[in-house]
Amino acid sequence: MNLSLRQLEAFAAIARWRNLTRAAEQIHITQAGLSLMLRDMEAQLDCRLFERTTRSVSLTQGGERLLPLAERTLRDFREVADQLSQLSADAARTVHLAATPLVAADVLPQACHELARTHPDIRVVVKDVDRRQIQPMVERGEVDVGVGVLLRESPTTTRELLLRLPLVAVGARGALTAALNGRGTLSWAALRALPLPLLALPADNAIQQLVDARLAPALPREDRPVFAHLHTLIAMAEAGQGVAVLPAFVASTCRRYAVDVHRMGQPMVAMEFFSIARRGAPLTPAAAPLLRALVQHLGRSAAGAT
């Protein structure tokens, strides 16, 4: 037996109107098509459902038994379909995003604030995680998108370049002033000549690898204080313990510290900031406006670094 919801709908319409023509009009089918569905139902059930004459249509005993079940099934299905439609609508307005703690704490809040002004119906769920967790979370479908520097594609993910961010030097107030050039930037040669130590991230960190590639072999790694978190480097720079070279997205964070932030130059070195998503999985419509707001905020923040 293979009765369809369409057949149950046709049966219920005939029972309601007791007229094939009006029932066919209600469910938007021809009277011939309605009669064919009814005959197929009766053949599958091996039971007549209606007594039909030239003037009337009435339920048989079997039809009377089937009608409550058909109406309940149709009602339950419509309720669940409405719930699923609401879930789909909610999902389309929600984006789950993974980012490192500094980006999650100091960049995304402002981007989300700006997004709320233009898209108040969008809900953003932020997961602040270690940078090494971002890609696995995207691959497992725990988040819709991840953002960060130097994220890599994999067989199950794809990435999009959002923008290129300059590197900036972060030091205690006044500590970098004498080393600045006429454009207010700090050259790599001047950085090497500073009496302050270079505050570093772990050697496997993509940010540190980019800095090391520019400085090597001038500054031995073993002489550097190493910290795992960007907030720690900024706080140590504020305390006069050294100078940190970081992507410009830290500029908004640095405003809460007594530090100076200056662009690195001669040559300018940029760090790529990506979004990453599951390959073949369409992004929720809420993701694109969020990423645009994030890029706009990052661009303004980077432009504010002298």
Q: How would you explain this protein's 3D organization?
A:
With 306 residues, this protein is an alpha/beta fold. The protein folds into 2 domains: 5-90, Winged helix-like DNA-binding domain superfamily/Winged helix DNA-binding domain (Arc Repressor Mutant, subunit A); 93-306, D-Maltodextrin-Binding Protein, domain 2 (3-Layer(aba) Sandwich). Helices cover 46% and strands 21% of the residues. The protein is built from 11 helices and 11 strands. The strands form 2 sheets. Strands 3, 4, 5, 6, 7, 8, 9, 10 and 11 form a 9-stranded mixed β-sheet that branches. It has a two-stranded antiparallel sheet with strand order 1-2. The mean pLDDT is 88. Residues 3-60 form the HTH lysR-type domain.
Overview in brief:
GO terms for molecular function: DNA binding; DNA-binding transcription factor activity. This protein is an alpha/beta fold and 306 residues long.
What are the SSEs and their pairings?
Layout (H helix, E strand, L loop, with lengths): L4 H13 L2 H7 L4 H15 L4 E3 L4 E3 L1 H32 L1 E6 L1 H18 L4 E6 L2 H9 L5 E5 L7 E16 L13 E2 H6 L4 E2 L6 H10 L14 H9 L4 E5 L3 H4 L4 E7 L4 E9 L8 H17 L3
Parallel strand pairs: 3-4, 3-5, 7-10, 8-9
Antiparallel strand pairs: 1-2, 5-11, 6-9, 6-10, 6-11
Question: What keywords describe this structure?
Answer:
306 residues, alpha/beta, Arc Repressor Mutant, subunit A, 2 domains, 9-stranded mixed β-sheet, two-stranded antiparallel sheet, 46% helix
Measured distance between first and last alpha carbons:
75 Å
> What is the CATH topology of the largest domain?
D-Maltodextrin-Binding Protein, domain 2
Report the mean per-residue pLDDT as an integer: 88
The major β-sheet equals:
9 strands, mixed
Protein name: LysR family transcriptional regulator
Organism: Hydrogenophaga borbori
Pfam families: HTH_1, LysR_substrate
Domain HTH lysR-type: 3-60
